[in-house]
Amino acid sequence: MDRAQKEKVVEELGQIFESSGVVVVAHYTGLTVAEMQTLRAKAREADASVRVAKNRLAKIALDGKPCESIGSLLTGMTVLTYSEDPVAAAKVAEDFAKDNKKFEILGGSMGENALDRAGVEAVSKMPSRDELIASIVGCIGAPASNIAGAIGAPASNIASILSTIEDKAA
């Protein structure tokens, strides 16, 4: 890899560290190519990404970034799982780690906050952005449907009363 390629990789990693809601750092020693492809596919489904990068270049890219504290985690064969959604990458990494003992989560960052192993696990248990939006919409929509039901109920009651009176008159 020549200097220009290294500079490009450092720039790409810098953008990842700046724009990601969460970055999870893990060791992947012993994973097969097929297992890595499975991890990448699961990440894609969750709108997250997986990146293997040289630790030295990643540390250079971290310089001056909000998540600079994760530099100490970059030792050995590391893989980065990241997403804009502050929960998606952590969920993907945790789910994959349950099935693959060779995938060892070291920690990560969420903005300026450094996460240890337990922190990544805690983040993974939080609801995702889509789940939060769905619950908010449900809360907003519930009163409207209740009002519609309340408004419609008296009319149906009146209609049934009129029907009963009509049946008795006949």
Commentary on this structure:
The protein is α+β, with helices and mostly antiparallel strands and 170 residues long. The chain folds into two domains: 124 residues, Alpha-Beta Plaits (2-Layer Sandwich); 44 residues. Helix content is 58%, strand content 15%. The chain is built from six helices and five strands. It has a five-stranded antiparallel sheet with strand order 2-3-1-4-5, with helices on both faces. Helix 1 packs across helix 3 and helix 4 crosses helix 5. The chain is elongated. The model has no long low-confidence stretch (mean pLDDT 84).
Topology:
Elements: H1 3-19, E1 22-27, H2 33-45, E2 49-52, H3 55-62, E3 78-83, H4 88-99, E4 104-110, E5 113-115, H5 117-124, H6 129-169
Antiparallel strand pairs: 1-3, 1-4, 2-3, 4-5
So, CATH architecture of the largest domain? 2-Layer Sandwich
| CATH fold topology of the largest domain | Alpha-Beta Plaits
The side-by-side strand order for the widest beta sheet comes to 2-3-1-4-5
Using the alpha-carbon principal axes, give the shape. Answer: elongated
Low-confidence stretches: none
**CATH class wording of the largest domain:** Alpha Beta
- Over the alpha carbons, how many angstroms does the gyration radius reach? 26 Å
Average of pLDDT = 84
The helical percent reads 55-70%
Residue share in β-strands: 15-25%
Would you count the extended β strands for me? Answer: 5
Order of helices and strands: HEHEHEHEEHH
Structural class based on helices, strands and sheet pairing: alpha+beta
CATH superfamily of the largest domain: Ribosomal protein L10, N-terminal RNA-binding domain
Whole-number total of structural domains: 2
**Continuous helix count:** 6
The major pleated sheet works out as: 5 strands, antiparallel
